[in-house]
Design a protein that fits this description.
CATH superfamily: NAD(P)-binding Rossmann-like Domain
Helix content: 40-55%
Oligomer: single chain
Number of domains: 1
Distance between the termini: 42 Å
Largest sheet: 8 strands, mixed
Strand content: 15-25%
């Protein structure tokens, strides 16, 4: 039986490494979609993998565009009927040389609303035994936010739409220079990652017992510090960082968990260990 996998943000860095790993694991019988916003970069990534003897399919995708997400979902639905492995990895970069007020809107629209669009479009397409992994980070623990903000991301009571609304509110506060006054962290990456993990936890809650019955696993994954163009501007040295292929190993361990595995379901997982969302 053909296994179908989709990776977003996959023309470089960790995303490309994840596609490479999936193509190797699934082999000739598998279908792996490498998605990219830019056709030229996507085609270059496909050629690179083909040069390694791997077969993948390119599909253009901009997670900021709902129509683009729906087009990918429709392709998967009509050609395959569903998806077995979905890794939501697309992320906007932030750089230290520009004010965060100039970057927050695109960052939230890509990392948070993009994750939400993928969840909404692809949850109905998850086959029995499917694995849905959202690439986040260890910053996604609720403990990284002031306690007054915890109710905004409490998966036990909030809806996905309320999480997205909270992030829109946060982006507006950053743009207005009011975020710190209102008790939010200075660095936009922290609320964004908490919201991503919260979205995964809400999805696990909504799937409920059905996830176990159908052997569907949803989780967030922190790959650790990865040596990429996006991370280098923030660190004086990348000596301790993983290469994209090294970082992909543990993410793929989660995304390709064997049948019946419930380890990490609804959780944030780093290096095969569950990180506490709250203490």
């Amino acid at each position: 039986m053909t296994s179908v996998a989709v990776v977003t943000g996959a023309n470089q860095g960790l995303g490309l490494a994840l596609v490479r790993g999936l193509a190797r694991r699934l082999g000739e019988e598998g279908v792996v979609y490498l998605t990219a916003r830019d056709r030229g970069r996507g085609e270059a990534a496909v050629r690179l993998l083909e040069g390694e003897g791997l077969r993948v399919r390119l599909h253009l995708l901009d997670v900021r565009d709902e129509a683009s997400v729906e087009a990918l979902a429709e392709t998967v639905r009509t050609e395959h009927g569903g998806v077995d492995v979905l890794i939501s990895n697309a992320a906007a970069r932030i750089t230290p040389d520009r004010p965060q007020s100039e970057q927050v809107r695109e960052f939230v629209d890509t990392n948070n609303h993009g994750t939400y669009r993928m969840i909404r479009a692809f949850t109905p397409l998850l086959n029995d035994g499917a694995r849905f992994v959202v690439v986040a980070s260890s910053f996604g623990s609720l403990t990284n936010l002031p306690t007054g903000l915890h109710p905004r991301f409490d998966e036990r009571s909030v809806s996905p739409e309320e999480i997205e609304a909270a992030m829109d509110e946060y982006a507006a506060l950053v743009e207005a220079g009011q975020a710190k006054i209102k008790g939010w962290p200075d660095w936009i990456n922290i609320p964004s990652k908490v919201a991503q993990v919260a979205a995964v936890r809400v999805l696990a809650r909504q799937l409920g017992e059905e996830a176990g019955k159908r052997d569907v696993l949803v989780a967030a994954a922190c790959p650790g510090l990865v040596d990429t163009e996006a991370s280098r501007p923030w660190f004086a040295s990348m000596a301790g960082a993983l290469s994209p292929d090294e970082a992909a190993v543990d993410v793929l361990w989660l995304a390709c968990a064997p049948a019946g595995s419930r380890e990490g379901h609804g959780e944030l997982v780093q290096h095969r260990r569950v990180l506490p969302y709250r203490f």
